[in-house]
Amino acid sequence: MKRWSTLVGRFIMLAPVRTVSTESRRCPLLTVQPCRGMVDEKIQIIIRNLLPNQEVTVHSLHQSEDKDFWEAFGHYISDEHGKVTVAKDESLGGTYEGTEQMGLLWSLRPVPGSRPALRLRKKNVLTPMVVNISVYSGHLSQGFSQASLLATTVTERWYMAPGVQRVNIRENGVQGTLFLPPGPGPYPGVLDLWGGGGGLIEYRSALLASHGFACMALEYLAPAMLKLTDVNNTYFEKAYQILQNHPLVQKDKMAMLGLSFGSAITFSMTAYSRVIKPQCCVCISGSHVVPVDKCLFKVIEDFTGLVDKVPVNEDNHLIHRDMLLPIPSDPALKVDVGRIKCPLLLVNGTDDQNWPTVESAEDIEMIMEKAGNRHLLTVLTYPDAGHLIEPPYTPHFRASNFILYDTKKKVVMLWGGQTKPHAYAQEDSWKKILAFLQEHLYSSNVKAKL
Domain named BAAT/Acyl-CoA thioester hydrolase C-terminal: which ranges (predicted)? Predict the structure, then answer.
């Protein structure tokens, strides 16, 4: 796809940078480029016209669609020319430290006094994530709303690039949203499955469409739908066929992408379905240790029925991973991944506290080795990353609120991960996921425009 900067003309211009005079009568100049771009695109933040060796705080502020405020900040010292370049200079403190070009995004956290255990997720992909970037004199860690600004500006972060089409899918009992890239097509297809939190989650699909893939976000844990429909293998086969049969989708260039429980479904469907025959699969933070002979509602019901037996940490956060340990030796208790006939990419974090993904990956490797299909497996394991490995620069959540579908009970789920290594895992794995999909869904003479 064309870079965002060539498409800025399709949007109204942002307000210009506002600066506030300092006592030294210098006017600091803050630039953020691009001012409007994709969420997986890096931004350049530069502050000029400071005093030499001046201490400043660079601060980001975002108000979520739930009206909660999130902030991040770094402490910097200008060089001898009165300049700070976030991509090159070191943050000496704040919500991140070191030379971190995107730290003002991936270290976002709720402002003090916010509701507990929040998670930041984009609901409406037709609007951008708006982030205010500001500069303050001195090294501040609180009281930003009362402090005097040196300079401030706004940047927009989009999941959906110009020209991407969003299409509601309500067909044959299947519910989802299809995102189609710009241009005439046809495009490779990706069926996108989120995890046990349920609902229709669109932002990853919108971003994949922005990279040249026809991607369908599938809703399969909607409470109203579960009361009406026995969601089993047939539901996912119908969804796969709807995507595959779309006139702008290449029938022989299909993939499945799952996170958490969505990965468990991906393992099962790819191994056993006579309908779902993808050219490749990506499984993020998942396990093959799931019952495959039950309807989905029954599986969720079994999991939530055991919630009172799940251990908690000192903060009363549920450590869900122990429910699947130890990895069973009985083949009947796990998906026979030896039956998988397409390239498979696993993405895991060593500090995943929700699913035993590292242990599962080791067992998957042994099963596939024995079956003779180990050559199809690629495993990415990220030290100190947690469960929710999302698109790059998404803030890290070690724990957050979670609604148990069967009981409607709200708990705080421990996802795991340390902020900086988790941020690295998200950035690195996203590049490799895109490369993996491109390699297996595009022929040598038709490359994705990344």
Answer: 234-442
Question: Coil, strand, or helix at residue 63?
Answer: strand
Asked if residue 255 has pLDDT above 80, the reply is: yes
Which residue among the candidates 89, 192, 351, 352 is catalytic per the annotation? Answer: 352
Q: What percent of the chain has pLDDT over 90?
A: 75
Report the pLDDT averaged over residues 339-353.
97
Residues 156 and 37: beta-carbon distance below 8 Å: yes
Active site residue 375: no
Please pick, among 211, 246, 320, 387, the residue that the annotation labels catalytic: 387
Asked whether residue 173 carries a pLDDT value surpassing 90, the answer given is no
363 is known as an active-site residue? no
Residues in a beta bridge with 124: none
Alpha carbons 318 and 387: distance in angstroms, whole number: 13
Distance (Å, whole) CA 272 – CA 279: 15
**Helices (DSSP H) in 13-71: which residue ranges?**
none
Catalytic residue among 64, 91, 260, 263: 260
Is 352 a catalytic site residue?
yes
**DSSP class per residue in 422-448:** HHHHHHHHHHHHHHHHHHHHS-TTS--
The H helix count followed by the E strand count for the chain is 8, 20
Distance CA 98, CA 96 (A): 7
Of 429, 440, 437, whose CA–CA distance to 394 is shortest? Answer: 429
| Domains in the chain with CATH codes | 4-158 (2.60.40.2240), 165-441 (3.40.50.1820)
Q: For 121-140, what is each residue's pLDDT tens digit?
A: 999 999 999 999 999 999 99
